[in-house]
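Recap quiz, item 2
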Amino acid sequence: MTLLEIRDLKVSYGEREVVHGVNLSVGAGCRTALVGESGSGKSVTARAVLQLDVAASLSGSVSLKGQELVGAKASELRSVRGSRVGLVFQDPLTSLNPVMTIGWQIMQPLVIRGVKKKEARERGIALLARLGVKDASRRFDDYPHQFSGGMRQRVVIAIAVIAEPELLIADEPTTALDVRVQAQVLDLLHEVAVERGMAVLLITHDLGVVAGFADDVVVMRHGRIVETAPVAQLFADPQHPYTKGLLGAVPRLDRDPAQRLVSVEEIEAVAG
Amino acid sequence: MNVARYVARRLLLSGVVFFGLVVLAFVLVTVLPGDPARAAAGRNATAAQVAEARERLGLDDPVLVQFWHYLTNVLQGDLGNSVFTHRAVLADIADVLPSSLELVAAAMLINIVIGVPLGVLAAYRRGRTLDVMARIVALLGATMPVFWLGLLLQLVLSSRLGLFPLYGQLGFGERVPDITGVITIDALLSGDPALFSSALAHLILPALTLAASFIAVIARTVRSSMITSLDADYVTLARATGAGELRVVVRHALRNALVPMSTILGMQLGWMLGVTVLVESTFSRQGIGAYMVDAVLQNDLYAVIGSILVIGVVFIVTNLVVDLVQLWINPRLRDGLAPARPAAPEAVR
Amino acid sequence: MSTSVATRKRRRIPLVDRIALIICGLVLAIAVIGPWIAPHDPYAVNLSQRLLGPGPEHWLGTDINGRDVLSRILTGARTTLLATAVVLAVTVVIGVVVGTLAAVGGRVVDEIIMRITDVGLAVPSIVLALGFAVALGPGIGSAIIAVSVSWWPGYVRLIRTVVRETMQSEFVESAVALGVGRRRLILRHVLPNSLDILYVQVTLDVAAVMLVISGLSFIGVGAQVPSAEWGAMIAAAADNVTSGWWALVFPGLAIAITAIAFSLVGDWLRVLRDPTLKQEN
């Protein structure tokens, strides 16, 4: 069943159109990766779902289980945010409010929906523990600066998923982290998504992280989709020259180490 | 551990500034031209009286000895005597200070109630009409001479429109029991609502006048801090969890503005007490400002310098309190991660 | 094509700032030639002409002593602005010398200077100025000294910050690497690249210093009777607010308009110096 359906989405800032008619769908409980280099419009596309950027004007259709979001009233959008769609950003340093305890921030999505403080706290601590934060109940009242980057990103994920959304939009969730921590956080995200039957739209510039994570891959370039395919098929038999180029830029263990990685210029040259 | 070090450092700094203030006062009293013996003895004193005063004040001692005497006197609350009232300066100031504090408190209330929302709204509607209007209000507040504004308000609102009493702190023939020295509170305690509203009516214009030049600065501080917060990822993420705009602005963004805001408000409190010199006389209010103006015009050296010391001490104490409050509102400070004092915006003076 | 339009747009001065610039120029011109263009003698007491409202003979009316308000404003501009200029000149010199010393003189020197400026910040300038006025006796001269004494800490802090920033820039590092001497480094490399902030700050401060100077005159310790200093004019008019509003309103407007114009120009210069500030302010 389709959860998120994007049809002919165009996004522009003032006169400048940056996304030119994108079609994309995410099935319920599925993990879809939206891949492209910076400036490809992948983030703008994903963020159009929650419409948090007031400067962006949208046309086309974004529907969540049949509910149209483009042109929806502010109150409708607000009821979607958090409870049906969660959001995780790239940089855990800036994603958390420095003057509030992480507990307060985790509880917020529940508190604003009328859940009692005590229950919100219990659920917050349980979730934080599930996300691998040791001593969750003691650390619940600590401040963001008292956590490491990887731990902070777990807190950000906790905030995004505590209200049990059907879809999580993760915008480069591991880019700002240590390579070692990246894999841990992605695995965790995968586990939690599967446990909760939550769909994930993963935005990344790094095809390398997609392989073990996503079911489907959508490749974007210059505000257009160039290829959509199940992950195995995409890796085995990329259709579009740009995708081939991107794959060439991924370091792989099964490749002859003497073979050089493809540079961005070369990708540009091939894709035209 | 960091907290203890921070508090110790703040206390030490306050002590150093206080010491510097006493040095400054001593220089003004002793070293600058003008004869402190004559100032202490009074304008019509005989040569013998002046010589006696010179002896009594130890003005023939070496400067360091004189300073030591001055410092110990100040620490014991002896700021010298007023040649005009013939009383101890500190006692004089103690009599009028409550009235000034009442005025400053009222002005601070107006400052916060107008300035903070103005800054928040200007940041929220950045670049729109409301932001431009806030800038104009701020510009006018910062550039209008305080003393002129007071007179204008008197002219238009009191004299022409009769909306407020022209001057004084109570109507003709009205009296309050002297309990706290703060007229509005005493009027409230007296249980007479008419008296209380009269005291309030007399307070509004001078408080508004005093607040006017400060609103601009606090609004600007709040605006720039709010802009930083509102653009931050954590505010976008708060919206992404479905929080309403009011909640986003007040609970998520404004809470961050509290840190620079409290620093500025603390400084403003001390400065407001100083700016009463331009307000109290105009409205015929009692207070340290009016006392100082009278003292300056009568060449009452010790009264003027004593007032400077008191105003300086109020500034030092409020800022110490603010520094301690910072510990509570700025968690990063507790772990020594934040600068102890955010840079004051250049427009604060 | 489009770039040239953009460049032209950027070079064009916004209307508000252009008006402010013109007003600043006018005020400065009046400070120079004011006494010669005044239609009446600003000091001539004429009790038969007292408190006349604005009219064809006296455009801005007359004061309690029958003196022409317009002539007094035109003449008084010189006193107010000259005093302001002297204060700013003195404080800038102190600020550059002491501020640079604090920035490059090592920890101890820095700490001592900063604590002294802390004392200066603890007392509002108008109050500190009153202290100096009473110690030195009333008069515009002591007002100038008084305000200068209370104003320099701000410049010391500003220069200290800017010089420190410049010391860390790359061209200073390369000058050090080339073996430029310390004195020469500071005088020839650091200072010339630090001080452009001054014209911004001085313009912004014209308003504030002018307000303190006229405030002192208003209290009675600055310019003395019968000077046409703007603050003193307001003080003189304060006693008959109800019978002659013009004698109160126009000198105040002169102060306010001058202050607004210089503030606007200061803000404009600041954005010009650092375009990234446009968003912030």
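Chains C and A do not touch (no CB pair under 8 Å).
Residues 205 and 263 of chain C are 8 Å apart (CA to CA).
End of item.
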